Amino acid sequence: MRIALLPGDGIGKDIVKQAVKVLDAVGKKYNCVFEYKEALIGGEAIDKVGTPLPQETIDICKESDAVLLGAVGGPKWDNLAGNLRPEAGLLGIRKALGVYANLRPAIVFPQLKDASTLKEEVLKDGIEIMIVRELTGGLYFGEKKRVQTEEGQKAWDTMVYTEKEIDRISRMSFEIARKRNRKLTLVDKSNVLESSRLWREVFTNIAKDYTDVAVDYMYVDNAAMQLVRNPKQFDVILTENTFGDILSDEAAMLTGSLGMLPSASLGDGKVGLYEPIHGSAPDIAGQNKANPIATIMSVAMMLRYSFNMLDAADDIEKAIVTILDKGYRTLDIMQEGMTAVGTEEMGDLIAGEIK
Ligand code: NAD
Fold first, then answer.
1. Alpha carbon nearest to ligand 1 atom 34, residue
2. Which atom of ligand 1 lies closest to the CA of 282?
3. Which of 10, 29, 148, 270 has the largest CB neighbor count within 10 A?
4. Is 346 in the pocket of ligand 1 (CB under 6 A)?
């Protein structure tokens, strides 16, 4: 299995290294070989070759079976023009790989529930929600314009979706729900938006092919409220791009820690893109302080969704729980009475549990 590694900037290098340790431990246990090829992206690519996404990086990713990305960006590159900034590399690689579904699990580990701002009774026994966000359509990609009128400027963005775009991501979400607790909630604003009404129609038709999955519909304003009121009611949430952008950040905050949250971006192509949701954390880069768990959990998603190695993915998640149970914490999730460890140690501890 060929994996492209794009560590990127800041803590990217620190955390990707730990994820590779864990993958190697999986390789040993399951007698398989992961072949890595490292490539440039983001600020480091700007410094070395003058562009945030070199063609060579695109080629290496396309020739791989999966891509693991660390993070991009940092103050050094903040004053560059939009298309030359490190983040352009991120949008560019998603586009080049044709990934249209962003999967973001929001997991509250019972061991870390104190890190959340929600009350203990809401989080009791942990939370595990999967948000599937459409990534390449809707408001962010529809026609946008600004004109001068007699009364001043006028601007608009357009939320556009085609049946095909809704169809493919709906089917993917049903398949994901089948691998989990078989409940799928479509979040939209179909009481107001025509595009949402199309989402509902297409989705409802597809649901007939998945009668083993319980379906539910919710307006986005209500979903925003329900996520903090009673998050346990959700299993998989499917929603369009803008709503998903907002709701997935809200769900992430249920967990209280950025350093624990992975993501996967998938399309019809064979290459999935896996990355932690946090940024490059320049304030702690290279200091052995970053929490590598989000990246290690991204690798568990890679094993599950790209390589269909479900047992190995479970092994990684269990190893993380075991290490948390034993009281080991990186600084961002440190609590009284626990043992503080650095990035390297956390990687070693988790890899050491996979045997
Ligand atoms: P950030 O996520 O990098 O950091 C926010 C805070 O969380 C910081 O205090 C940081 O130290 C902490 N943090 C983040 N990840 C952590 C981890 N794994 N372990 C411990 N602590 C962690 O967000 P920011 O500070 O807004 O952005 C910094 C840079 O990252 C910017 O250049 C931004 O554009 C970029 N960024 C990149 C991505 C990405 O690559 N996907 C996402 C968001 C931001």
1. 73
2. 28
3. 10
4. no
pTM of the model: 0.90
Among candidate residues 247, 221, 277, the one with its CA nearest the CA of residue 129: 247
Q: List per-residue pLDDT tens for the chain, 355 residues long.
A: 999 999 999 999 999 999 999 999 999 999 999 999 999 999 999 999 999 999 999 999 999 999 999 999 999 999 988 778 999 999 899 889 999 999 999 988 888 888 788 888 888 878 889 999 999 899 988 898 999 999 999 999 999 999 999 999 999 999 999 989 999 999 999 999 999 999 999 999 999 999 999 999 999 999 999 999 999 999 999 999 999 999 988 988 888 778 899 999 999 878 999 999 999 999 999 999 999 999 999 999 999 999 999 999 999 999 999 999 999 999 999 989 999 999 999 999 999 999 9
Domain count, the chain: 2
Best probe residue, ligand 1, of 90, 280, 345 (max atoms within 8 Å of C-beta): 280
Q: Tell which of 224, 254, 284 closes a domain.
A: 254
Does residue 110 form part of some domain? no
Alpha-carbon span 184 to 306, nearest angstrom? 22
Q: Verify that 249 and 264 share a domain, yes or no.
A: no
Query: How far apart are the CA of 280 and the centre of ligand 1, in A?
Result: 5
The residue assigned the tokens 């249920």 is 254
Is 111 a domain residue?
A: no
Distances (CA, A) of 343 to 163, 213, 220, 287: 45, 40, 37, 9
- Catalytic residues, by residue number, are 140, 189, 221, 245, 249
Q: Could you say which of 235, 254, 273 is where a domain stops? A: 254
CATH number at residue 137: 3.40.718.10
Query: If you measure from the C-alpha of residue 291 to the centroid of ligand 1, how many angstroms do you get, rounded to a whole number?
Result: 11
Domain that holds residue 91: 1-103+257-355
User: Is the CB of 261 within 6 Å of ligand 1?
Assistant: no
Q: Residues 78, 118: contact at Cβ < 8 Å?
A: no
> Nearest residue CA, atom 43 of ligand 1?
279
Nearest atom in ligand 1 to the alpha carbon of residue 74 is 32
**Residue 91 · residue 28 · CB < 8 Å:** no
CA distance 209 to 241: 24
